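Lab notebook, design round three. We kept the backbone fixed and only want residue identities now. Task for the bench partner: fill in a sequence for the structure below.
Input structure tokens:
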């Protein structure tokens, strides 16, 4: 018997939607990164994050956005901003009572993309 996908262990689409909404709230209220989101369309950002989580964690949606390097090139994101974003994600996971194993997997996934996000 195969192990359930990370998507399923998170609680499926309904829980991913809640997590994405909480990530948005955290990012837009975090003084270290909120300026990055001032001109962003919340619905578009949340749709792309939702798709990204589905595609990366074994859900049914396909990610339709740009790859991480293309999406972040020219933004000159700092290490401090990257850590702040990761902290925002962890806060959203905490709020939704996501288990430590799943939190660790998500954190590993975030840090695996750091080179395509920070300082590019």
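Proposed sequence:
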């Amino acid at each position: 018997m195969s192990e359930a996908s990370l998507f399923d262990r998170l609680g499926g689409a309904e829980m991913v939607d809640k997590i994405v909404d909480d990530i948005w709230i955290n990012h837009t209220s975090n003084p270290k990164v909120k300026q990055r989101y001032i001109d962003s369309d919340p619905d578009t950002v949340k749709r792309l994050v939702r798709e990204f989580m589905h595609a990366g964690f074994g859900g049914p949606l396909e990610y339709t956005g740009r790859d991480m390097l293309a999406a972040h090139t020219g933004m000159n994101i700092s290490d401090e901003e990257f850590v702040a974003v990761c902290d925002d994600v962890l806060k959203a996971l905490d709020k939704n009572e996501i288990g430590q194993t799943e939190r660790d997997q998500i954190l590993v996934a975030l840090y695996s993309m750091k080179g395509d996000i920070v300082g590019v």
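Keep this in mind before ordering anything: The two ends are 42 Å apart (CA to CA).
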